[in-house]
Amino acid sequence: MTTHQDQRANASEPVLSRRGAMGALGAMAVAGPALAQYGSRNGKNEETLDLRSLMWDDATSEYILPPLPYAYDALEPHIDEETMRIHHDKHHAGYVRGANGALQQLKAIREGQGDASLIKHWERQLAFHTSGHINHSIFWYTMAPSDAGGGGRPSGSLARAMNRDFGSWDQFVAQFKAAAGSVEGSGWGWLLLDPFSKQLRIVQTMNQQNENIRGGVSLVGVDVWEHAYYLRYQNRRADYINAFMNVINWSAVGALYDQAMR
Ligand code: MN3
Q1: 107, 112, 180, 242: most buried, per Cβ within 10 A?
Q2: Distance in Å, CA 133 to ligand 1 centroid
Q3: pLDDT, mean of residues 183-205
Q4: Separation of 41 CA from ligand 1 center, angstroms?
Q5: Ligand 1 centroid – CA 13 distance (Å)
Q6: C-alpha 45 – ligand 1 centre gap (Å)
């Protein structure tokens, strides 16, 4: 059993920062019992989670790997410990490394040191790896163990918006599962907010970012790359997506929605 302390001891940066900096993602307000470990405010189990400071280091101008907000085995039996270890420590870390590498190469080209003919390649690498870093950071922080806030249904303003835009919870679930399940090859299924219509949309993203709605605010997504589920579910992607529904931290997702609507 890996403890939360192990997680934090392995992390090179603090789990929580109150620098309060507002970036592309901004300060993410996350509430719910799953995050009670982070402390309480006004007697309620809620904290403002600064996801930006977990993903980016202003001091070094580099992307950084955020620690998982729970133990590697905390999402068992829905998502297994070995998958979580490899997915977070190897795959997500690789996106962070790739994003920083692309930034370095583009800097070199700007400074006349790099191969300018490769700028298209490095711009693609930047988009791919940075999107992968963002996707996985949101992924970890919008899941919770099923006995600590994971699963169930949203409430409040998000629930009302989902009923308005999808007709019902059941219709949302059916479309979300079908979208995620039918991604060709590697990608994600997402619930996102179109900031212009202010309506919720379900989209597939190919790989890490292609075919996303531009400007869409990601609320919750399921990673359907095979590395996310193959160890336990093999080719049974639909079973994995069903299991994922049991670990969605809807209070965290609802907080993201409320923040995006402000
Ligand atoms: Mn992944």
Answers
A1: 180
A2: 9
A3: 97
A4: 33
A5: 22
A6: 29
Cβ neighbour number for residue 134 with a 10 Å cutoff: 20
- Distance, CA of 255 to CA of 102 (rounded, Å): 32
In this prediction, what percent of the chain has a pLDDT beyond 90?
A: 77
Whole-angstrom distance, CA of residue 124 vs CA of residue 145: 35
Instruction: Supply the angle between the helices 237-244 and 169-181 in degrees, to the nearest 10.
Output: 140
Q: Give the Å distance between the CA of 114 and the centre of ligand 1.
A: 30
Helical ranges in the chain per DSSP H: 4-10, 51-55, 81-86, 93-110, 119-141, 156-166, 169-181, 230-233, 237-244, 250-261
State yes or no: pLDDT of 30 exceeds 80: no
How far does the chain reach from its first CA to its final CA, in angstroms? 40
**Least confident span in 47-51, 87-91, 119-123, 210-214:** 47-51
Buried (b) or exposed (e) across 183-222, using 16+ Cβ within 10 A? beeebbbbbbbbeeeeebbbbbbebbbeebbeebbbbbbb
What's the Rg (C-alpha) of the chain? 18
pLDDT category of residue 121 using cuts at 50, 70 and 90: very high
Question: Ligand 1 center to residue 139 CA distance, Å?
Answer: 9
**What is the pLDDT, as a whole number, of residue 48?**
53
What confidence tier does 236 reach under pLDDT thresholds 50, 70, 90? very high
Residue 186 CA to ligand 1 centre (angstroms): 9
d(C-alpha 178, C-alpha 202), whole Å: 10
Range with lowest mean pLDDT among 14-18, 71-75, 206-210, 231-235: 14-18
